[in-house]
């Protein structure tokens, strides 16, 4: 386990319930603590360490589950260290869901190293199931497509103070506009998602763009992550609107909102397809933290069975429930 925070702890529990043996764990603020104490999983004798390369070299795992960061520049070094020591890697790094367009050189390097050492790197998570697989299936039921537009939301409170600050919670409208003008932001989570949808649907991406709009509080709203009240009129978060145009015609759009929720709001996922026929799908009140982890765990056998290299979810078999022990679903590579 490379990362033993909220997501890593849930994944570790799910993996052990599917018969996996955890042989090592790497963290930051919990170094030296028993993994069982941090995650609440009994009968795990691993102590959390700080050096991923040393742990992988010593324990020789079949798979490293990586839940440390979202972007290529933050995960590349650790991914390469694992691959070079013969470990497959599956991560929650959202950019790496499909990073051939956003970080082509880094993706090519990871692909080459993975192939050299006979292992696989894949990114999965909530967006794999709800923003790629379901949407690609919906598109497969249409005869003609003009546009596919998704609207998704997530609660800043679920991911701690660092992400709340990244979402500019508490800013005035003027402060937000100043930040947006000067921000050197990594790719949004929506862009690689739409690129994966395009790849899964046989579409050729010709243009990608992003617009960002603030979400303002309509009443005083308490933010638990920052231990502060956001006054009405100030920023609760923002919406990224990603648009991908394809050579074949269909336009793909994802409006993704990360904000502090008020009472009664919940994570949601809704998509509309304009074409022949018009179609839609919607998932209400999604427990995103659980779907994120369960999706990754269900992908594990497919990653271990995949050909070596950087393998996106667009190239894996369709996502499906994998009952029983993970080992029961493995084939000789």
From TrEMBL:
Residues 133-321 form the 2,4-diaminopentanoate dehydrogenase C-terminal domain. The keyword Ribonucleoprotein does not apply. CDD domains: nat-AmDH_N_like. Coiled coil: none annotated. Keywords: NADP, Oxidoreductase. Residues 3-90 form the Dihydrodipicolinate reductase N-terminal domain. One of its GO terms (biological process) is lysine biosynthetic process via diaminopimelate. InterPro entries: DAP_DH_C (IPR045760), DapB_N (IPR000846), NAD(P)-bd_dom_sf (IPR036291). One of its GO terms (molecular function) is 4-hydroxy-tetrahydrodipicolinate reductase. It comes from the Bacteria. This is Dihydrodipicolinate reductase. It comes from Leucobacter denitrificans.
